[in-house]
Amino acid sequence: MRRFLAAGFLLLVPAWLSATVIIPIEFRELVTTTPVIVHGRVTDVRAAFVDGRRSVETFVTVAADEYLKGDLGEHVTFKVPGGEIGRYRTIFVGAPGFTAGDEVVLFLRTPGGALPFIVGLNQGAYRVVADRQTGRRMVTAPILMGRAGVDAEPIVRGAASRRPLPIEAFREAVRGVLAQGAPR
To answer: What are phi and psi of 93, to 5 degrees?
Structure first.
């Protein structure tokens, strides 16, 4: 009898568990399928309970410097899964973290009537940082990013595809993809 109970329990456990699977998005697909691409600075980060206090989500407000695609106004607030309120913390693997003052380029989806969210979790959040030697503003790629025709690839330190791009070159790359249209 114990064996049957143990077997039944083991069969039911996977139904209770869930996992997040992040599929790499090719840059071209990210640009063409995302309705809003905004470059700006984070002005506010706050966490709040959702789902009747069952989990925490973070609400981030960005002052828009420019829109490369779409327009949500001078300030845009979006949600990120996970966050921390006092001793309560919800961790969502793959969700980017933000602090006030961060300069970012975000790829946002805006479901009808709901707050926008970042496409592909961390894949749709690019950081803009100053180069230590030149002071030039550089856009850094997210850790997980797909390339055309590549399902999975190792992350290689120093690889050309991982090098930061000057913000001007990043803008031109986005505009170039938009000019070419959707992927085939």
So the answer is: -60, 130
Distance CA 69, CA 121 (A): 18
Give residue for tokens 């700006």. 40
Residue 104, classed as helix, strand or coil, is: strand
> Considering the entire predicted model, what is its pTM?
0.78
Residues forming beta bridges with residue 39, ordered by sequence position: 66, 105
Residue 15 lies in a domain: no
Report the C-alpha gap between 26 and 183 in whole angstroms. 10
Q: What is the total count of domains within the chain?
A: 1
Burial of residue 32 (number of CB atoms within 10 Å: 0-12, 13-18, 19+): middle
Strand partners, 62: 42, 76
CATH code of the domain in which 61 resides: 2.40.50
Give 57-107 pLDDT, tens digit per residue.
999 999 999 999 999 999 999 999 999 998 888 888 889 999 999 999 999
- CA–CA separation, 30 and 170 (whole Å): 13
